[in-house]
C-alpha cells in the first residue's frame, strides 16, 4: 500500500487540480518555449515553489502528486535542468530579492540551463577543499582554477561556482558561492567521454574569468552553507523527464507535442523505471516462468517501488528549510537500485547483454544503463559519504575526527595542494 501522504486528500486534490489544468491548457502546437512560459505563469510547473515565485507553495507530497499528473496526461513536463532542480531552490533560500528577480523567471520558463561548478581534481568528497580562487577586483571577482565532472557545462548559460575567497581561515570558512556566466572568454569547457558512449560531463578551466559581486549568493566566506543546500537538494532530486532547457540545447523553438513524446520515452517519475524495463525484457525472452528469475524480478520490483516512495516523499524545503540529511538515504537507495537493475538486467539478457545495439531486447537500454551504473554511487556524493552523513546526522553516531577544523586553508596539504604557496 502506498505511504499515507499518497492516500491523503491534499495529495488527491493536487493530482486532480493539476490534471484538470494540464488537460485544459495543453496545446502540442505551441513551441516548447511558449508551453513552458504558460506553465511558469500558472504555478503548475514548479508547484512546490512559493506562490510569489512561479509556484503554488505546495508540500513535497503534493508536488509528487502533480508529477503523476504529468505522466498521466502525456503533456510536456516542466524544464528540469540543474538550474531548475537545484539552483532555484537554493536561490529561494539564500538569494536576495534582486537575485531572485534576476534569475528565477528564466529558470521557471526553461530559457536557461545551469551547471554545477563544485568538484575539482583534488576536491570531490572533500568538497570544502576546493582550490579554485576568486580574488576581488573592484566590484568584480577574478576566478582562476579547474573544475571537473561538470555535468551539462556544454549546454549551460550559467554555473553555480564554489570558489575560495580566503585562504587564511579554516577551509569551510573561506569559500564563496557565485552564479557565473559560462559563455565568457575566461571559461573553457572540455568534454569528457564516458564508457556508455555519452558526453555527460566536462572539465572546465577558469583563467581570469569574471563575475560581478552582485552575483555572489550569501556572504563572502559563507559559500559552504549555500553549497550544502544545493547538495541536499541534489540527493533528493525527483522530477519527470523533460527535454533540456536553455538556448544552447536548441529545443526551445521546437513544437511541444513531439518534445513531449521524446520526454515520455525517458520518463522516470522519481525512480529509475528499471524494473519495468527488465521485467518487460524477461517477458519477451520467456524467462518469467522460471522461478529463479521470478524471484529476482520480484525483488527488483519491490526495490524499485520502495525507492519511488522514498524519492517522492523525501524532498522538503518549504518554509525556508532545506531537505534533511535523510535525503542521503534516498540517494543510497537509488544507487542500490541502479546496481540491482544492472545485475538483474544483464542476467535476463544473457549473451545479448554483450551487444551494444538497439536491435537487442529492450532496445539497448539495459546495456546502456549497465554501463552508466557506476555514476549513480558517485554523483552528488559517493555512497561512502552518504553513509557517513546518515551515521552522524540521522543516527547521531560520533563524528569522524577532523584534524583540519581549525587550520588555515593555506597551511593544509590536501587535494592537489602539496605545500603552502
Ligand atoms: C555522473 C556524475 C555526474 C557528476 N556531475 C557533477 C557536476 O555536475 N558537478 C560537480 O561539481 N561534480 C559532479 N560530479 C562529481 C562528483 O560529485 C564526485 O565525483 C564525487 O563527489 C566524488 O569525488 P571524487 O571523484 O573526487 O572521488 P574522491 O573524493 O577522491 O573519492 C575516492 C573514493 O574514496 C572514498 N572516500 C573519500 N572520502 C571518504 C570518507 N571520508 N569516508 C569514506 N570513504 C571516502 C570515496 O567514497 C570514493 O570511493 C559528478 C560525478 C558523476 C559520477
List the helices and strands and how they pair.
Blueprint: H1 9-25, H2 32-42, H3 60-73, H4 82-94, H5 97-108, E1 114-117, E2 133-137, E3 140-151, E4 158-164, E5 175-181, E6 187-192, E7 201-212, E8 216-217, H6 223-235, H7 256-264, H8 274-284, H9 291-314, H10 327-349, H11 365-372, H12 383-394
Parallel strand pairs: 1-4
Antiparallel strand pairs: 2-3, 3-7, 4-5, 5-8, 6-7
The structure holds flavin-adenine dinucleotide.
Give a verbal description of the structure.
- The mean pLDDT is 91.
- Strand 2 and strand 3 (140-151) form a beta hairpin.
- This protein has 421 residues and is an alpha+beta fold.
- It has three domains: 4-80 and 249-261, no CATH class; 114-235, Butyryl-CoA Dehydrogenase, subunit A, domain 2, CATH 2.40.110.10; 270-381, no CATH class.
- The termini are far apart.
- It has twelve helices and eight strands.
- The structure holds flavin-adenine dinucleotide.
Strand order, largest beta sheet: 1-4-5-8
| Largest sheet descriptor | 4 strands, mixed
**Roughly what fraction of the amino acids lie in strands?**
5-15%
Give the termini distance in whole angstroms.
Answer: 60 Å
Order of helices and strands: HHHHHEEEEEEEEHHHHHHH
Low-confidence stretches: none
> How many structurally independent domains?
3
- Average of per-residue pLDDT values: 91
Amino acid at each position: 500500500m502506498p505511504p499515507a501522504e499518497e492516500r491523503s486528500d491534499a495529495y488527491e486534490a493536487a493530482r486532480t487540480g493539476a490534471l484538470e489544468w494540464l488537460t485544459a491548457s495543453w496545446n502540442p502546437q505551441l513551441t516548447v518555449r511558449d508551453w513552458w512560459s504558460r506553465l511558469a505563469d500558472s504555478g503548475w510547473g514548479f508547484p512546490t515553489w512559493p506562490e510569489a515565485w512561479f509556484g503554488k507553495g505546495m508540500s513535497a507530497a503534493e508536488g509528487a502528486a502533480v508529477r503523476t499528473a504529468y505522466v498521466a496526461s502525456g503533456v510536456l513536463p516542466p524544464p528540469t535542468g540543474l538550474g531548475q532542480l537545484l539552483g532555484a531552490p537554493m536561490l529561494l533560500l539564500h538569494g536576495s530579492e534582486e537575485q531572485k528577480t534576476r534569475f528565477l523567471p528564466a529558470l521557471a520558463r526553461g530559457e536557461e540551463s545551469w551547471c554545477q561548478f563544485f568538484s575539482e581534481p583534488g576536491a570531490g568528497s572533500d568538497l570544502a577543499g576546493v582550490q579554485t580562487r576568486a580574488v576581488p577586483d573592484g566590484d568584480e571577482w577574478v576566478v582562476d582554477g579547474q573544475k571537473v565532472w561538470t555535468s551539462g557545462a556544454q549546454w549551460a548559460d550559467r554555473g553555480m561556482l564554489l570558489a575560495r575567497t580566503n585562504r587564511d581561515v579554516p577551509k569551510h570558512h573561506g569559500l564563496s558561492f557565485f552564479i557565473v556566466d559560462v559563455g565568457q572568454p575566461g571559461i573553457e569547457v572540455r568534454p569528457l567521454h564516458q564508457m556508455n558512449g555519452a558526453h555527460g560531463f566536462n572539465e572546465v578551466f577558469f583563467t581570469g574569468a569574471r563575475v560581478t559581486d552582485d552575483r555572489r549568493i550569501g556572504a563572502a566566506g559563507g559559500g559552504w552553507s549555500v553549497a550544502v543546500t544545493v547538495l541536499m537538494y541534489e540527493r533528493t532530486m525527483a522530477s519527470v523527464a523533460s527535454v533540456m532547457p536553455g538556448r544552447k540545447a536548441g529545443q526551445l523553438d521546437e513544437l511541444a507535442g513531439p518534445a513531449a513524446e521524446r520526454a515520455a520515452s525517458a520518463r522516470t517519475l522519481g525512480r529509475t523505471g528499471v524494473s519495468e524495463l527488465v521485467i518487460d525484457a524477461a517477458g519477451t525472452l520467456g524467462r518469467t516462468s522460471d522461478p529463479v528469475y521470478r524471484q529476482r524480478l520480484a525483488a527488483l520490483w519491490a526495490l524499485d517501488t520502495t525507492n519511488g516512495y522514498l524519492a517522492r516523499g523525501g524532498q522538503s524545503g518549504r518554509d525556508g528549510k532545506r531537505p534533511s540529511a535523510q535525503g542521503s538515504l534516498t540517494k543510497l537507495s537509488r544507487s542500490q537500485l541502479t546496481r540491482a537493475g544492472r545485475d538483474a538486467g544483464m542476467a535476463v539478457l544473457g549473451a545479448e547483454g554483450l551487444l551494444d545495439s538497439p536491435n537487442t531486447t529492450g532496445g539497448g537500454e539495459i546495456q546502456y544503463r549497465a554501463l552508466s551504473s557506476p555514476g549513480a554511487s558517485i554523483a552528488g556524493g559517493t555512497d561512502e559519504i552518504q553513509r557517513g552523513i546518515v551515521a552522524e546526522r540521522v543516527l547521531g553516531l560520533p563524528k569522524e575526527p577532523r584534524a583540519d577544523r581549525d587550520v588555515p586553508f593555506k597551511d593544509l596539504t590536501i587535494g592537489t595542494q602539496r605545500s603552502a604557496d
